Fold:
Amino acid sequence: MTSLAAVEAQGVTKVFGVGPDAVRALDTVSVTIRENEFFTLLGPSGCGKTTLLRLIAGFELPTAGDILLHGQSVADQPPYRRAVNTVFQSYALFPHMTVAENISFGLEMRGVSRADAKKTVDEMLVLVQMSGLGGRRPSQLSGGQQQRVALARALANHPKVLLLDEPLSALDLKLRQGMRSELKALQKRTGITFIFVTHDQEEALTMSDRIAVMNRGQIQQLGSALDVYEKPVNRFVADFIGDTNFVIVEIIGAENGWMRCRGAAGLEFMASPAGNKKSGSATLAIRPEKILLRVGGNHGEIVQSVYTGTDTNYQVRIGDGSGLNVRVQNAVDGGSPFTVGDKVGIDVPSGAARMLQD
Amino acid sequence: MAELAVHSGGRRIAARKFDLRRLHGFGTIAGACLVILYAPILILFAFSFNSSRSVNVWTGFSTEWYPKALLNDKIWGAALNSMQIAIFATICSTIIATAAALATTRTKPWRGMIASYMTINLPLMVPEIVTAIATLSFFGIIAGILGTRLGIIQIMLAHTAFCIPFAYMPIRARLEDMDLTLEQAAADLYATPWQTFRRVTLPLLMPGVIAGATLAFVASFDDFTITSMLVGPGETTLPIYVWTSIRRGISPEINAMSTILLVISILLVSLSFLIGRKKY
Amino acid sequence: MAEAVIAGSVPTPRGTVEQRVSAAQAAAERVSRRTRWALIAPALIVIGILGIAPLIIILIYSFLKPGAYGGVIPEFSTNAYVQFLFEKDLFDESYHFTTAHFQIYARSLGLAAFTTIGSLILGFPTAYFMATRPAHQRNFWLFLITLPFWSNLLIRTFAMFVLMREEGIVNNSLLYLSILEEPIRIMYTDTAIGIALLYSFLPFMVLPIYASLEKLDFRYVEAAYDLYATRWHVLWRIIVPLSKPGIVAGCLLVFIPALGAYVTPLLVGGGKSLMIGNLIALQFAGSRNWPFGSAASLILMALVMIALYVYVRYGTRKSGFAHG
Structure:
């Protein structure tokens, strides 16, 4: 029976320590990662994403649950018996070996002949654009180059699954952005399943086929970048990904598939429904760029204006004292129609507000 | 750290940072300490080139004492013994210390680890003279059982024991500094634990092992107290030879011998220092 | 390669996942435990046989009778300890309380204390100075201070000996410069031993204090200055307390070897000013009283243990300051 699952975690729990100080890093996590997929584990530090990655790699054994690779259970196998390879956050290049020796290490351990290994090493050097640098030592390389060698070292073993533990976090911004597109292209070209761990949501959104947003040892939401951005299921996901306004409202009715809600200052929203909520109070999550401002309206007053280059972020104070963050893309000449002190009207298109399932 | 950079003609001077850490007079005392530490040695060195028999009054430059010291055939016997003992003790103690360091460093605390650690460092805690007489007593019993003295082997074994903590310290320090993820990376790349040890851990540990071996060698080569208690008739090592020379009469010949020994120790310690700092 | 598990591994046994995982975990632990003991065994055996066993032997010896030509006679006797404090009158077989041995121990304790305090006064500023050098200079200073530490003790003591003699350079120079009219006679006195000990063990004090000060977070010092502390305040209320572990370690590393010094008093004391080390050595050479020598050693060890206890109790206790 063929399965399209490259990696599967079934009810995985990981507890560190014993007794009252025990830390439950993962709590009954189940997830299926498909072949040929760029899959990201996203979350703040301590959420369990690295623990899950290490369980897949074999550096930790699960307290409960199973890890399957291509349908086969490997939970009890040490890392040197699992057909996955890892790119470490600190690169972990062997300082006493040259670049070429680093890359061929895994092949050597597997008993590949010298000639074949050399061929693969040369291929890898071309793949990561480091041809001719095979004789260097890691200490002679820049951060970006070390990262490529780490990548080449893992890929040289032709794994079907590649694990990447925050590999871009040590790079500066421009390098990081460059590497993001390179990694994405690499994944598409080689067809290897990438499991990518990061706390940087921009990275997750730009690179991933699917994202698992994690917090406190559990997966909060699993979906495509669009899913988690446009349709966050709970407060955590809405807050962690991008900026969000949280507005407390009263549900006053349902129309055309939307829920009509009333908030402060007489604002009314047509929000997407959440579960079976039909009445009572609810929290709406509204993205700053989806709020439209009108000059001369009466809903609120602009109290702060921050220019960020592409947009201007406004802080709008509304009737009950609370504030909304609104992002307006700047005009061609870089200007924007509002200034501090302006009274504005607020429009939120139907569906732009999402009701949270809290 | 807070720095008030003072721009002066384009050059930055970190004025305040230096100032607040400086305590008056401490630099002078430090300098004085260095002088105190090195002056006697330098004077010793200087007088090894004295042209008269005096070690106190400078009469002129002469290198006659060095050949006199070196052409003494007794000294070569002593040197040979010192070398044999030191090499034996170094090899054995370094291997033992490396194994011990691997067992006691970077692992979760295991039952008996603290006791083991204290045992390894025991020779450093016991005053040398006590170790000397205790070892003497011990080998006295052994000689009684076997019916014969063990000769120079006694000294070799005793040196091995007290050299272990000297070799242990740099190895342990190096091991503690080592990046744990390197071994994980090796495992990730299909290396079994033994392969990881042989291809990653051990090569990276080597500078520490060499540094430890050098320290063990120096400790054994320079030892006087323990060796003097254990030597039998006709056996002598270089430090003991120096001692008997002093007993017989002070002359620049002793200065020359001493200088040679000091230079050897200094070279070896420098070597150990440099190798131990190698970071790749 | 569609394999998930590398060929050549043990085929996964049947059983629930949790069973297999705990079996794997148990197996790994067993292997690591066995490896661990195999690795540490040689060290434990060698030091056990050549370090611990001899100590037990002299413990036993201290309760036996001395042999005529050295060694011991296997008969129980507490004479060795009695001898420490009492001397048997040859004529009327009565015991007098004698302070002879006591004096030696007292002298040793005094000299060890002098050496410790002296090296602390000299060593602390030196260590502080070294720790406040720019980073690249520090290694060089460390090297300079460490080097004498590793040179032959006998030779270094000899160098001191030559200097301090009546005919030594120091005296000659001072006489030459007419600062003195008569040479200072300090050789073979306690003072000479003290100076020589200080010289020998100074690096032992500097190194641990340096290690402690190097880790010192100077932001505490900055904060203190910011709050109007004077340099004196900063030194005594902040720097010294924060480097306490290093200071205590240094004191210990000087006091213990100084207490049991042998070579230094041998060369510089001239047989008149005995320290404990000489007393012990004497019993195993000329005096041929091994039990007494063993007893004296054990008393010395007891003093060392007390010093160690003080270190563990006061040197490693958290004093309320958290290091960064």
Q: What stands out?
A: Residues 1-18 of chain B have pLDDT under 50 and may be disordered. Chain B has two domains: 24-62, 66-276.
